[in-house]
Amino acid sequence: xxxxxxxxxxxxxxxxxxxxxxxxxxxxxxxxxxxxxxxxxxxxxxxxxxxxxxxxxxxxxxxxxxxxxxxxxxxxxxxxxxxxxxxxxxxxxxxxxxxxxxxxxxxxxxxxxxxxxxxxxxxxxxxxxxxxxxxxxxxxxxxxxxxxxxxxxxxxxxxxx
Length: 161
Description:
4% strand, 161 residues
């Protein structure tokens, strides 16, 4: 079942409930597990110093507020306590996360869930390539462009999951 970096930090109760969350969302537990591993290493207290994203799936402050909490409150929760917020975040994507890429896109750029792997999300402003998102998205996430193509695709983001 779950064999991701950081999963050893979790309890059996967390792993059971994560499987229940995935079942309710009609997706594979490994898809959500891949995102959590990548985003936080299953450490609920993790905070990204650039923008304040916090927790298991790196909730942005505005997202936490929309879900009825704060990033400070999330940081004070253990992994089990954060799971209801993870589930609430992914609820609009229930039945639509058919791969780890879909789950990661739901987390990273939700409007692009289900797009094909070659869909260009963002491009380096100097590349002359058009992306769906502003160039700043490329600049802030150039790490996804492992091949230094000058653009980021859905497939690049999925490869990170």
